[in-house]
Every structure is written in structure tokens, then in C-alpha cells.
Design brief:
The protein is 70% helix and 0% strand. With 547 residues, the protein is mainly α. Helix 1 runs antiparallel to helix 6 and helix 6 packs across helix 7. Residues 333-534 form the NFD4 C-terminal domain.
């Protein structure tokens, strides 16, 4: 396979374009907007709707194939496949609903993998920050879509599906040219920190603005002109990250002192064809890890390797240590891999259950307009993703605290949140939804950089996409099999197709609280196990800090 050439543009161009792709990749979060229409038109009960929600989650999170492809092809190939999946899936939604929904939301896995893997490799020493920013935009995308749905599309489910079919592919095709591997800038460039702060600030402004305008839309009767103005301002805020590469072009800064060069992202993709093993990103590689080219290539059979070892042609390869680059088959047999998977499974599986049923939870508790609930969850989900990425990056650098400690804390809070839901006390619905949104977002922003730090960036695409399977599997167990069944059973007891009152989901919330309790215990165990790894990765003598 030919070596992929690094792009000539600064990686900030790709990051600015990635913002738009991540908004497009958040298309699965539209499910609560059109699921009531599906339930009404097709006469589905709540359990069937939750099964469709599971299809939505499977499509969004089954990214094993994108993870494999991202190591073989440039980002535009993944983006093209995501565009096709989005167009074909939503376009035939009414022909084969479940399969079509899987295909349509699977566009999110392709789009997100393309931009996340590329930008993690473009900014290898700011993994937590990059993961928090990009996953944060996916989190706020639900509120962005709600604003477009209510202010431009006039709450028409048909127009929304048409927008998803045509609008999102157009956006991704327009951004495709800018999403490319770049050689990372010098670690001593002080402007990197400022640029990240600017990107985080603009994303926070977007979240606050969208939440405020959606609430205004629900409280006031806005004219069409005002609604369109609100959406236009939202688009301008979305374009703000592109100001960084524009500023770098107009006002270039040339550093007299060059820092040590970073490993470029094309080296990460094609590094297995090099004559020596690629140096780990955070620690110095020892000389005994350098092997000849024929041994590093995945194309050489195991028999050839054994014969070569026996003849003394090559040294016997040692297994990678945590913090170095693992192949997927090497990572999947590690206890830390499955501990991280289980912690993520309990955290996001319980959170996505509430998200998939949020509209019905609001109606059962007497909320007439559930759009505000969805926007609140989306805003807090964004805060959790952005905040966890930035906070964990600070503490891992300053105190070498493993990022997973934040998963532990967030899942403890989730236990309290589910008990608040179950209590159904007056005034607790919005508080519980906000807290859950933050904690749900934390799971994404912590899992991604943790997986890259434990198992490396070379095969990061397939490893983190396998981790993401915890989301749809959790949705299947907790949402489709548990929440849908409990809701329909209580509805039958009430003698109707809809359920009202706290009992509709009380048992579900209690089970989810227990699940987070198990996740908390496993997270503590994982944090203790990987603490020495972080002491090694971020020791002052071995890590090359960005700022």
C-alpha cells in the first residue's frame, strides 16, 4: 500500500472542518424528535419504539469496520462511505425501518471515526482535549438539530428526514477536502494552548446560545425572520474554529527554536512498513524494540516469522507494554481492555437508556413539551464531554492522575441521579436530566484518550470503536429489554397504550442505579491497575508536553 502523504495545511484546518462533520455525525440524536411520529403513524407500542432506538444505537456505535478502514485508506474514503450511508439510510427509512435506521445512523460511526482518528493523530500530545472538543460537538448536535427542526423545518418529521438525507451529505462533502493527516506542530509552540482555549470557548458559546434560543422559541412566538436570524447566528458560531488557520495564514509565527519533531499521522498509518518500530508517542523507545522490516509487516505469515527467528535472522519480538502500540488482537486479551469496556458499558448503557426514552419519561411525568428536556440533556452532555476532556488533561499532566478516576466520580453521581428519577419528587426531573447529561458525556471524553494511552494510536480506530459497542449493547439490555417491557406492562395495567406516572420507569431507574454501582467498583479497580502506567507516561523526564 502506498504511503499516505501528510497534508500541507496546519492541522487546525482539519479541526475546524471536523466540527461540522461531528455535528453531522450527531444525526442519531434526532431519534427522539421523530420517534413520536413513528409511534403514532405506525401504531407501535413503547417496546417496539425502544427496539428502534437500539437500532439507532447499533448504527451509531458499530464502528469496527471504520476502525479497520481508517488504517488502510485516507479520511476522505471514510467520509464518502458515511455520506452514502446517511443518504441511503434516511432515504429508504420508510421501506425497511429498522435496517434503514441502522444504516443511516452508521454514517455517524464512519464520519466520527474519520475526524476523531485523524485529529487524535494530528494532535498526539493533546488527546484528552481533542477528544473532549470533538465528542462535545456530537453532544451538542442534538440541540443544534432541535433548533433547525423547530425554527426552520417547522417541526415537520418529513422535512427533517429530507434534511438528514440531503443536507448532511452536502455538509460532509464540503468538509471532506480539509480532513487530512498533517504533520503535528512543535510541542514547544505556546500558541497551541491558546488555540485550544479558543476552540473550547466557541463551542461553549454555541452550546449556551442554542439552549437559550430553543427555550426562547418555546416561551415566545417568534416570527420567521427572527427564527432564521437565530439559525444564521448559530451557523456563524459553528464557523468560528476556522478562524485559527486563517489567523495562522495571515499572521504566521516562525519559531527560532525548534522542538523535537512529532510523529506524523501518516507515520502512524504506514509505520508498520518502516525499517524500525515507530517510537511511542509519550515515552522513549528502547533500542531492543527495533526490529527488521520483514518482522514488522503484517503481511508476513506467522510460519515465516518463526522460521526467521529460528535461523537467527530476526530477534524474537517482545509483547508491547501498556502505553505502546497494540494490535487489536494483542489488546483484546488484556484485563485492562475489558475493565475499560465494562466501565464504559455500564456508564453509557444506563445513560443511553434514559436518552432513548427521554420524551416518554417527560410525558409520563407530566411534561407537555419535551424539547426543553432534550436540549437540557444535550447541553449538559456537551459540558460533560468538553469539561472531562480538559479537566482530565490538566490533572493527568500535573498530578499523573489516571483519567478513569473521573468515570468513577461520574458514575457515583449517576447512581444518585437515577434515585432522583425513581423518587419522582417535584422539581427533580430537570435537575436529574442535567446531572445525567454531564455524567453521560464524561464517559465518552474519558474512554477515548484512555484507550489511546493504554494501547497506542496506531490501531486506535478499531480499538475505540470496539469499546463503543458498549453503547448499543447497553441500549439493547437496559432500554429495549428492560425499559420498554416495564413501560408497556405498566401501560397495560393502566388500561391504555400510554403510561402516566412515576411507576412507568421506576423499576428501570433502580436497575440502572445498580448497574452504575457495579461500574463504579470496576472503575476503581481499573484506576488502581493503570496508575503506574500514567506515572510512566507522564513522568517529567519522558513526556514531551505541548504547553
Amino acid at each position: 500500500m502506498p504511503v499516505l502523504k501528510a497534508g500541507s495545511r496546519p492541522p487546525w484546518v482539519g479541526l475546524g472542518a471536523a466540527v461540522w462533520v461531528e455535528i453531522a455525525a450527531g444525526n442519531p440524536y434526532n431519534f427522539p424528535l421523530y420517534s413520536p411520529a413513528i409511534k403514532s403513524v405506525l401504531g407501535y407500542n413503547q417496546q417496539l419504539i425502544t427496539i428502534l432506538g437500539v437500532a439507532n444505537d447499533f448504527g451509531e456505535n458499530v464502528g469496527i469496520l471504520p476502525g479497520i478502514v481508517c488504517n488502510k485508506f485516507p479520511p476522505w474514503v471514510l467520509l464518502s462511505i458515511g455520506v452514502c450511508a446517511c443518504f441511503l439510510g434516511y432515504g429508504v427509512l420508510w421501506l425497511a425501518l429498522w435496517i434503514a435506521l441502522c444504516i443511516a445512523t452508521n454514517s455517524s460511526a464512519w464520519l466520527s471515526t474519520a475526524v476523531l482518528v485523524t485529529n487524535m493523530r494530528n494532535f498526539p500530545l493533546s488527546r484528552g482535549t481533542v477528544a473532549g472538543i470533538l465528542k462535545g460537538y456530537i453532544g451538542i448536535s442534538a440541540a443544534v438539530y432541535t433548533e433547525v427542526y423547530s425554527m426552520v423545518l417547522k417541526e415537520s418529521a418529513t422535512k427533517l428526514l429530507l434534511f438528514l438525507t440531503l443536507g448532511l451529505p452536502v455538509i460532509c462533502l464540503a468538509m471532506m477536502y480539509f480532513i487530512r493527516p498533517c504533520t503535528a506542530a512543535s510541542g514547544e509552540d505556546s500558541s497551541v494552548h491558546v488555540h485550544f482555549l479558543f476552540t473550547q470557548a466557541t463551542s461553549l458559546c454555541l452550546a449556551i446560545y442554542v439552549l437559550a434560543t430553543v427555550i426562547l422559541k418555546d416561551l415566545l412566538s417568534l416570527s420567521t425572520a427572527v427564527s432564521y436570524t437565530f439559525v444564521a447566528v448559530m451557523v456563524i458560531i459553528l464557523m468560528c474554529p476556522i478562524a485559527i488557520p486563517i489567523k495562522m495564514t495571515l499572521f504566521p509565527v516562525y519559531s527560532k527554536k525548534r522542538g523535537p519533531p512529532f510523529v506524523s499521522s501518516d507515520d502512524l498509518v504506514s509505520g508498520e512498513n518502516d525499517s524500525s518500530e515507530t517510537e511511542p508517542l509519550l515515552i522513549d523507545s528502547s533500542s531492543d524494540t527495533n526490529l527488521v522490516n520483514s518482522y514488522e509487516s503484517e503481511d508476513v505469515s506467522d510460519i515465516d516469522i518463526l522460521l526467521a527467528v529460528g535461523e537467527g535472522a530476526v530477534k524474537k519480538k517482545r509483547r508491547p507494554k501498556r502505553g505502546e502500540d497494540f494490535k487489536f488482537r494483542e489488546a483484546v486479551v488484556k484485563a485492562d481492555f475489558w475493565l475499560l469496556w465494562l466501565v464504559y458499558f455500564f456508564g453509557v448503557g444506563s445513560g443511553v437508556t434514559v436518552l432513548n426514552n427521554l420524551a416518554q419519561i417527560g410525558v409520563s411525568m407530566g411534561v407537555d413539551d419535551t424539547n426543553i428536556l432534550l436540549c437540557l440533556f444535550s447541553f449538559c452532555n456537551f459540558l460533560g464531554r468538553l469539561g472531562a476532556g480538559a479537566v482530565s488533561e490538566h490533572f493527568v499532566r500535573s498530578n499523573k492522575i489516571p483519567r478513569t478516576i473521573w468515570m468513577t466520580i461520574s458514575q457515583i453521581i449517576m447512581i444518585v441521579t437515577f434515585l432522583l428519577y425513581a423518587s419522582a419528587l417535584d422539581g427533580t426531573l430537570y435537575v436529574a436530566t442535567g446531572l445525567l447529561g454531564v455524567c453521560y458525556g464524561v464517559q465518552f471524553a474519558i474512554m477515548i484518550p484512555t484507550a489511546s494511552e493504554l494501547f497506542g494510536l496506531r490501531h486506535f480506530g478499531i480499538i475505540f470503536n470496539f469499546m463503543q459497542l458498549g453503547n448499543p449493547i447497553g441500549a439493547l439490555l437496559f432500554s429495549a429489554l428492560l425499559a420498554g417491557y416495564v413501560y408497556d406492562t405498566e401501560a397495560d395495567n393502566q388500561g391504555g397504550s400510554s403510561c402516566l406516572g412515576a411507576n412507568c420507569y421506576r423499576l428501570t431507574f433502580l436497575v440502572l442505579a445498580c448497574a452504575c454501582g457495579v461500574g463504579t467498583i470496576l472503575s476503581v479497580l481499573l484506576t488502581i491497575r493503570i496508575r503506574p502506567v500514567y506515572q510512566m507516561l507522564y513522568s517529567g523526564s519522558s513526556v514531551r508536553l505541548t504547553h
